[in-house]
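agent> Task received from the user: take the single chain below, predict its 3D structure, and emit structure tokens. No templates, no multimer pairing.
agent> Plan: (1) validate residues, (2) run structure prediction, (3) serialize to tokens, (4) report one or two observations.
agent> Step 1 OK, no nonstandard residues flagged.
tool_call: predict_structure(input=
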Amino acid sequence: MSKITKAAKAVKKLDVNNVIRAIVRSGQASPGPPLGPVLGQKGIPIGQFCKDFNEKTKEMKEGIPLPIKIHVKPDRTYDLKIGQPTVSYFLKQAAGIAKGASKTGHETAGMVSVRAVYEIAQVKAQDECFKIRNTPMETVVRSIIGTAQSLGIKIVNDLSADEYKVFLEQREEQLKAEAEAAAAEALVAKKK
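)
tool_result: status=success, residues=192
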């Protein structure tokens, strides 16, 4: 066997998939699914990882979804990189809603001002994925607007607190009515 063939086999043995990407809520890493099995397959001590992650995120408000990148080394150790919270989290917080629209494009789940979108863009521009590509702020803002649209969040120039409060109350009433209609429909279907 030639030296080149040996080198080629050695390269093939290197696992290129030594990076695990996931979104984990701050302070809530646990050995259970979905994170536990993935870490176990790579040979990472799950209990130690959960302890490390929860320790690094203890200063944050609990429950914030954080994108993480775990670089697994051949000796079963790892490097953990924790990113900024997700754009959808920021948008839902700015809009004051728990979840996005169930029918995207057909209903509005909330509203956010252009100023809030720009502030979110300033935070997200610090993310590694935008910094590496030297992404202009306009592109980051467009990305955030696209995420807002997929969540059913409308972007407006000015947003008064009173108008928005009325909107959220109407939205809540609409969701309750839809839930009651769905429950009644399920009851009728069950009787048949």
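agent> Step 4: summary for the user.
The longest helix spans residues 161-191.
agent> Done.
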